[in-house]
Amino acid sequence: MKLGKAVLTAENLVAGYGEHAVCGPLDVEVFSGQVLGMVGENGAGKSTLLRTMIGAQAAIEGDAQVLGLMPDDRSALFRSKVSVLLDEDAYFDSLTVREHLSLVARGHGLPNPDAAVEDEIDFFELRTVADAFPDQLSSGQRRKLLLASAFIRPFELLVLDEPEQRLDTRMRGLLAQRIARTAKKNAAVVMVTHDADVAQVACTRAVIVDDGGAQVVGTDEAVARIRR
Ligand SMILES: Nc1ncnc2c1ncn2[C@@H]1O[C@H](COP(=O)(O)OP(=O)(O)OP(=O)(O)O)[C@@H](O)[C@H]1O
């Protein structure tokens, strides 16, 4: 298969806190068109490594680059090309679902923001709560709003930490297919997951984070690891 351009590169990357290494070293290149999963047990260091790969946390050793640049989430260029959904809830209490999505769509200059908003409302099955405020949503609906906000905007790299969390099984399946389609439309995706079915459908490769190490493997090995 012909590879697209390198979107994310990690070289000898060791992630951790202060002097304490949690996992690594990781050497990997993620190209446009690829979905890199990150799997491993609770506390292994997946989220720490993911944050370090995108510059949200300082590396203990080694380097990460996004689109050939040092990752910097305060740079406008980085923010225009990288869509990130980590394990956090971030809402404006006074904006409805539709208003949130409209804000993101307009903020990123989408040519037809209203149509894009309605498409995401349909995809994430949020129509009955489109005019509801975040505190009127279920936890799964709030997660869908954050996912819709991550997908609605343009990006070259999509970064997701356990995107399946709080979703029902059917929606997990739809999400996995959407992630795979997204990569095929010339983006790279890096995502932490605990869901074997999501990994099987979406990932083209994976990193197993385990025992302080980080090893790049094929999707089947990663899926077996989640299932074991
Ligand atoms: N802010 C922090 N300061 C110090 N250590 C931390 C901090 N956050 C997490 N850790 C530790 O780093 C290790 C890795 O945590 P991390 O959240 O990266 O794991 P994970 O693989 O993503 O786990 P999970 O599957 O449970 O989400 C854990 O031992 C955790 O206790």
From TrEMBL:
* A family per Pfam: ABC_tran
Molecular functions per Gene Ontology: ATP binding
Q: Please state every residue range assigned to the domain named ABC transporter.
A: 8-226
InterPro entries referenced in this protein's UniProt entry, alphabetically: AAA+_ATPase (IPR003593), ABC_transporter-like_ATP-bd (IPR003439), ABC_transporter-like_CS (IPR017871), ABC_Transporter_VariousFunc (IPR051782), P-loop_NTPase (IPR027417)
Keyword match DNA-binding: no
PROSITE patterns membership: ABC_TRANSPORTER_1, ABC_TRANSPORTER_2
Protein name stated in the entry? ATP-binding cassette domain-containing protein
